[in-house]
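Can anyone check this?
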Amino acid sequence: MALSLAALARRTSAATLDAAILRFLSSSAARFSTPSPPRISKTLPNLDAIAAALRSSQHGEVLTHIGGRLTLFLFLKVIRSLRDADAWVIFFDWAGAQQGFLHKPVTCNALLDLLERARRSEQIVVVFGRIFSQDCKPNALSYCYLVKALCRTGKIDKACSTIAEMAREKLVPDVFTYNVVIDTLCKARRISRAIEFFETMPEPDVVTYNTLLGGLCKNGRVAQACSLFGSMEGAGITPSDVTYTTLIDVFCKMCQFETAYGLLQLMASRKCSPTVYSYCSIINGLCKNRKVDQAYQLFEEMKLAGCKPDRVTYNTLIHGLCVKQRLHEAKDLLTVMVENSFQPDKITFTALIEGLCTTDRIKEAFVLFQGMAKQGCAPDLVTHTVLVSKLCIRRKLRPALSVVRNYPACPEAVILYTPIFRELGRRRGFDRAARLLQKMARRGVAPNVVTYTAFFKGLGDWKEGMRAYREFRRMLEQGIEPDMVAYNVLVDGFCKANRLDMAEKMVRYMDQSGLPPNIVTYNTLVGHHCRKGKVEAIGELLHTMVSRGRQPDVATWSTLVAGLFRVGQVDAAYSFLNLAMSQGYTREALRFKAATKFKW
């Protein structure tokens, strides 16, 4: 070997010898298949025989297959050559029981390293406590394996306490371990704790800054993210393309496109070439805000800067053009996309189908939809959902039902039925909607809470209120729990049908299911009482709201006062108006003038 293990040891400090040995063995894996040094064995031990002996508990045969006395070098060679985690642990335990062989941090770390590479994080947490002893204490590398495993298994508090334990043992975690902890804390939205860890780090690197920066941005702490960005150069850290792109993305989501573009220019001026992700973040933000001309201009600028657009960039811009109904330009861009060796995918076709449906070019949309499979890109559930939704918006119920029927029956297909129920509701097609629910069950597509909510919304004037209640009961019998939206739709529908008794029954169901009425529920009931001029009932309802922790909002007061004015309860309306103003609301904020002919 070009560099012996002994020579490696002489060149390495004692504190990092075990890590150096692991790296040495990892980089020398190919040499393990060649003849071993004569003092140990002439050939590689029979690893399959060793593994079989370990699994069958015939441990006495293991030493025979190894071919001699177990040494540190031979232990490391064998354990790193075994093929599965169970064999690693069994061999480790067997080795510890051999006369004359004592485990050291390097052997324990070899096991932890293998388990970590195999993503056996739970197993690392379990074995860590028993493989070390008073005579073989964990070192910094050992703790780093444990911390990473704890983070991956969601035991972040234990990971933090392990870092503290390392400090008591005067062991310093490496920067990668700190980065894993900070990343886990950020994902758990424990930003303040992540900042504390960051401030205790001896030497954070650019990955540390990027991790914390991303966590701050995702949790809405943009000002702190900007402050952290400004402190990087003072700390001797040069921002990377990831740093700039993270900030660009968050400013685009805040619709601050000038700031985002300024960061793009700053990035280029500091000799950090903007990447396709940097440009695409701004293009995507502009398209979502219907600023397609600016997005197209940046797209051209991107190409002039030598940054080649990828498939995502093309798809983003094509979708933006389709939303603006600029289909001719979208098709031209598709041609450019193909010329640049990017074949259209499902996202491309879905965007074009959506654009064609929006401009009422239904036949062309169907031709494109049916031709997707011939292009080697069969339409998926998203494509079907977009087509069905757009057809229903254009009041094309029959072709929409045809698309739904031709999609394979599976639980996921339930999403296709929601726009159908909405369209049936607009047509007052209660009977057809009820039959469709039965057909769904026969096809094996179970309706969910969203399906039923769309069904209830579609009842229009709620003349079929009791039939709706029967469907509600059937929903419960199927084990489908209504959510807040579904309950509020039911309460609103029963109020419109003048069935206050049924509306209040729904409120009782809400309480029983652990979903106490929210402000929308109460505002619906307030509106009903106002239409009936029941001033006393309104007062009782407001008292109930407040006693249950629901304070009337601007919608409550405006509904209440305007409703009472409309039914001629002027004195009561003024009384509630004064009460609202005493709560800090102004007449301008309540906006009643447009809703009533009375002057006040």
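Reply from J.R.: I decoded it. Residues 430-443 form the longest helix (14 residues).
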